Amino acid sequence: xxxxxxxxxxxxxxxxxxxxxxxxxxxxxxxxxxxxxxxxxxxxxxxxxxxxxxxxxxxxxxxxxxxxxxxxxxxx
Length: 76
Prior knowledge:
The chain is mostly helical. Helix 1 (about 15-25) crosses helix 2. Helix content is about 35%, strand content about 0%.
């Protein structure tokens, strides 16, 4: 997207939420990173799965905090 992004403060961003708040969310029509995350989260669909499903995650994934692992919902 040459010329469509203001990259002035890119080097000042220190984490993914800051990046997503500044670039990802606005580019996709969301007001904030939190709004983007809520819309994109797959956890909201777990309760509707009706066939046995294997979910694979690494507990030491550096990109995902523990809150990203819906163990209770997935076990139901």
